[in-house]
Amino acid sequence: MKAIIVEQFGGPDQLALRELAAPAGEIIVKAAWAGINFVDIYQREGRYPGVSLPLPMGIEGAGVIASAPAGSGWQIGERVAYTTGVQGSYAEQLAVPHNSLLRVPDALSLRDACAAIEHGLTAIMLTEKVARLPSQGSVLVHAAAGGVGGWLVQLLVARGLTVFGTTSSADKAAWLTSVGAHALRYDEGQDWPAVVLDKTGGRGVDVVFDSVGKSTFAHSLQLVAPCGHVVLFGAASGQPEPVDVLQLMRKSITLTRPVLPHYMSTPATLQAAAAAVFRHLQDGSVHLRIHQDYALADVAQAHRALASRATQGKLLLRIDSTLN
What pLDDT, in 10s, does the model give residues 84-105? Predict the structure, then answer.
């Protein structure tokens, strides 16, 4: 099989397409699509400890089972998505651990399943398992028109919460307004923290969802209400500075940094969350947004687009679009 491999850390062009041997006795998936995520960039740039090189790229995708051992419970031709526990989805074929395979409903395309699974699972984790969401109140979502941000905004608005979302363009702001959120334009020099405080009567928001990190984290701590919760789940602008716990004590703030595999650590929890993701798509409670798809060989271009933080929704790698 052919797969994208990181040969050395650095810029987005320092990637190679290499031929790999498929391991015997594993469930092998013929890939249709692969998802592109900020974690891919973090791994490529060496931000995470314990990453050894060369590294097969990609943590999610969708395709069709090409081979499966007898008694595995999986059949050739079944349509599947995969994410937690997977490394190397930028490939024509890959071995996927049994516990990471998710059956795709017949009514859902492989393209949509791939575009939804990582972002959707993350949003389900954050809203259902991590954040202490109030029955009524307000929340702040940074990068609110992005991949996970877009899922969060739609889920939170559906709960009846007041949602503020930071964004960087008129188009993104228009989308946020269209789904019922308050758009905050940090690119225009707007004093958006003052807007949040004004609209919450000076109290601040109950929960902040922050995937940006360094450039937003101080505002996250500033704008969270007493006894509120800051959920840091990414670092698109870099890792924030270390926190003095006394800064948290002043408002009894709780701060957490969750990662998906810890919350989807059993097949049962992963399957239940994936079912919720697919259900949201099928019943229309979340509208999927795919920014663009790229050929597998154009992965460097896709990484540059995501790193620019100018995209809306999901970026995909098109591996075999004849599979649907």
Answer: 889 999 999 999 998 999 999 9
Q: Return the amino acid letter for 152.
A: L
> Identical fold at 2-119+263-318 and 134-257?
no
Calculated CA dihedral for residues 133, 136, 137, 142, nearest 10 degrees: 50
From CA 187, how far away is CA 42, in angstroms rounded?
24
How many separate helices (H) and strands (E) can be counted in the chain?
10, 16
Fold of 2-119+263-318: Quinone Oxidoreductase; Chain A, domain 1 (3.90.180)
Terminal-to-terminal C-alpha distance of the chain: 20
Beta-carbon contacts of residue 229 (< 8 Å; ≥ 6 apart):
131, 132, 206, 207, 208, 253, 254, 255, 256
Sketch the domain layout of the chain as residue ranges: 2-119+263-318, 134-257
Each residue of 242-274: pLDDT tens digit?
999 999 999 999 999 999 999 999 999 999 999
The two tokens of residue 81 are 């998505």
The size of the chain, in residues, is: 324
Neighbouring C-beta atoms of residue 212, cutoff 10 Å: 24
The position carrying tokens 């929340």 is 139
CATH architecture, range 134-257: 3-Layer(aba) Sandwich (3.40)
**Alpha carbon distances (Å) from 120 to 168, 187, 232:** 22, 27, 17
Q: Is 153 helix (H, G, I), strand (E, B) or coil?
A: helix
Q: What pLDDT sits at residue 1?
A: 63
At 116, the amino acid letter reads A
| Cα gap 143→212, rounded to integer Å | 7
Query: In angstroms, rounded to a whole number, what is the distance separating the alpha carbons of residues 80 and 10?
Result: 32
Place of tokens 């790193």: 307
